[in-house]
């Protein structure tokens, strides 16, 4: 295992501590029976249409055989979390983390956090500098986890990236995604991985300091377009888009279009998504990167 950055040893130690705190053992999976368990775990989370399954057992087998990242988190009950990713083009020194999930019974224990730290240590041991993945920009808890807890950076807005998925999480909504880059050697990433408290973003305080609201919320929970002419711009998302898709799918679609029309052009124009308020606000810095 290489340690080209000097971060591998502390990254591995942080991953071990996170796994112990979550009550799991995380290990690379190569054998067919456990790969089959990973497939069924993902199926139990997404309930995907077989025609649109995010990954198959056969693909997991091939990815594992080719040396890609396929890992599982195990506790006394068995497999409770998993993640699979594949290598990007060699010059990028990156893996793309395609899918990760945690069983409902194990949620709230920071199993997902432990898996990502394991993936970081694994990537560093393979001489990689970055992990990328996509996530739905409307899912507030994922935005907080990816941007604040992990220290990732959205770099591209991808409208309807996967096309219709029709699973229990995405429903019939368009599959817009943000492409995220996780710089494994960045000081902020290393700091939070070692257990330092992440920065707390406060949209109200930012607004009082001069930030403008490019997209807000009405009292009834509808998207409310604003202005994006300030240096720091705030973009709202619903508090719980997954529930909204079930209870008011038309409103969920309006949120999809509103966030696409506001956040997409900001990122395309070179603005940097610098943080996320847990109350459901992206913090965007319009100064050119």
TrEMBL record:
Signal peptide (from-to) = none
The record's listing under InterPro entries reads:
Acyl_CoA_acyltransferase, GNAT_N_AcTrfase_prd
This chain belongs to the protein called GNAT family N-acetyltransferase
Q: Which residues form a coiled coil?
A: none
SUPFAM superfamilies given for it? Acyl-CoA N-acyltransferases (Nat)
């Amino acid at each position: 295992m290489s340690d080209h950055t000097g971060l591998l040893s502390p990254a591995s130690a942080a991953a071990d501590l996170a796994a112990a705190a979550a009550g799991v053992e995380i290990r690379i999976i190569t054998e067919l029976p456990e790969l089959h368990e990973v497939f069924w775990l993902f199926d139990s989370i997404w309930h995907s249409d077989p025609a649109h399954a995010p990954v198959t057992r056969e693909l997991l087998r091939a990815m594992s055989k080719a040396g890609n990242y396929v890992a599982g988190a195990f506790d006394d009950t068995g497999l409770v979390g998993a993640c699979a990713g594949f290598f990007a083009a060699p010059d990028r020194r990156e893996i793309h983390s395609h899918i990760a999930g945690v069983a409902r019974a194990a949620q709230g224990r920071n199993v997902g956090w432990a898996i990502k730290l394991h993936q970081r240590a694994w990537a560093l041991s393979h001489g990689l500098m970055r992990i990328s993945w996509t996530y739905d920009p409307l899912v507030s808890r994922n935005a907080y986890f990816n941007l604040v807890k992990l220290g990732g950076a959205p770099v591209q807005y991808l409208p309807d990236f996967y096309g219709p998925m029709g699973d229990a999480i995405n429903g019939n909504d368009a599959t817009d995604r943000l492409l995220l880059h996780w710089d494994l050697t960045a000081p902020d990433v290393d700091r939070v991985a070692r257990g330092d408290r992440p920065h707390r973003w406060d949209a109200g305080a930012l607004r009082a300091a001069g930030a403008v609201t490019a997209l807000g919320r009405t009292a009834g929970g509808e998207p409310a377009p604003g202005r994006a002419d300030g240096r720091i711009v705030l973009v709202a998302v619903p508090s719980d888009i997954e529930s909204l898709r079930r209870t008011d799918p038309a409103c969920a679609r309006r949120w999809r279009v509103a966030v696409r029309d506001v956040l997409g052009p900001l990122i395309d124009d070179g603005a940097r998504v610098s943080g996320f308020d847990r109350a459901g606000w992206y913090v965007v810095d319009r100064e050119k990167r």
